[in-house]
Amino acid sequence: MEKPFTTHHRLLLTGAAGGLGTALRPRLKADCEVLRLSDKAALGAAQPGEEIVLADLADAAAVNAMVAGCDAIVHLGGISVEAPFPAILQANIVGAVNLYEAARQHGVRRIVFASSNHVTGFYKQSETINANHPPRPDGFYGLSKAFGEDLARLYFDRHGIETACVRIGSSFPEPKDRRMLATWLSFDDLHRLVRACLSTPVLGHSIVFGMSNNAVTWWDNSHARHIGFVPQDSSDVFRDAVYARTSAPDLNDPAAIYQGGAFVKAGPFF
Ligand code: NAI
Ligand code: 15L
Q1: 75 Cβ closer than 6 Å to some ligand 2 atom
Q2: pLDDT tens digits, 97-140
Q3: pLDDT tens digit string along 218-235?
Q4: Is the pLDDT of residue 89 over 90?
Q5: Which of 80, 98, 149, 235 to mutate to test the pocket of ligand 1 (most atoms within 8 A of CB)?
Q6: How close is the Cα of 18 to the center of ligand 1, in Å?
Q7: Would you put residue 256 in left (φ > 0), alpha (ψ -120 to 50) or beta?
Q8: Where are the domains of the chain?
Q9: How far is 88 from 148, CA to CA, in rounded Å?
Q10: pTM of the predicted model, to two decimals?
């Protein structure tokens, strides 16, 4: 098969040792000449076409070196669940500032930021929201992602760095429960979305909900049509199996009322 066009020369993937980083690592290699992988956790040996730069996002000097020489970034690194605020502060807030400041200093023009549906987790599952609805974070984790989205806007307005803030729903091999029938994003659709964000001619500062073509959805992506993302997968093929192995939700449970699911009652972590 002919190799598709490459979007960038040296593409940086942070959080490369995590679940989504592991899924994107082989997929993104076709999209660039050199894929630089970074994490604070071990990444194994570099394969052909790969570079490995270990860095803690909270370490500004290490992040600066990690970004040097890259022309675009897919930023997945950070704490991915609700956690004590001091840890979130370092990994997700200080880490994001370090990343954007390094991007500015090294002339990076485009970033795909792994935001989360937990930026808007306190909207109800009976509501449909779009990118213009105000954030309603469901915890410190969601709040840190809201900060990241605003940080990206600042660096676009002041420095012209384009960002796609991808509010990922639930990206796993399969939906794990009934909620994820609405929030699921397949790994292949995640890659399609990241590739669209990297290659669309004009990205600006954009917010896009990361979901597959699921019949049940709470999110309207009509403000992100300029990205050109067309999901090819759907949670619908898993529906019968998910219903068979899970019981009906308690409709008085906040986890069933709000879009953030169980995240809305995680913690409190101070
Ligand atoms: P993950 O927890 O599996 O991977 C995150 C990676 O970031 C880990 O390899 C971890 O070592 C690294 N990391 C954490 N703190 C770090 C630090 N201070 N310095 C350097 N690296 C650090 O998470 P996953 O599922 O792969 O998610 C990737 C990104 O996508 C995260 O930012 C997460 O918040 C976001 N996301 C994921 C969703 C999903 O369904 N998987 C849903 C919504 C958002
Ligand atoms: C997230 O933001 C988490 O990173 C992920 O682990 C999932 O729990 C996902 O949201 C979700 O809402 O299902």
Answers
A1: no
A2: 999 999 999 999 999 999 999 999 999 999 999 999 999 999 99
A3: 999 999 999 999 999 999
A4: yes
A5: 80
A6: 6
A7: alpha
A8: 8-265
A9: 12
A10: 0.97
Residue type, 116: S
Residue pair 166/112 in contact (Cβ under 8 Å)? The answer is yes
Give the model confidence (pLDDT) of 65-75 as tens digits: 999 999 999 99
Helical H runs in the chain?
A: 19-28, 60-67, 85-88, 95-106, 140-159, 180-183, 187-199, 239-245, 254-257
User: In terms of Cα–Cα distance, which of 79, 19, 76, 81 is closest to 261?
Assistant: 81
141 is catalytic: yes
Is residue 232 helix, strand or coil? coil
The closest of 31, 33, 30, 38 to 12, measured between CA atoms, is 38
Question: Rounded to an integer, what is the distance from CA 35 to the centroid of its chain?
Answer: 18
Which ligand minimizes its atom distance to the CA of 189? 1
Which CATH code is given to the segment(s) 8-265? Answer: 3.40.50.720
Question: Is 77 a pocket residue for ligand 1 (Cβ < 6 Å)?
Answer: yes
Q: How far apart are CA 227 and CA 223, in angstroms?
A: 9
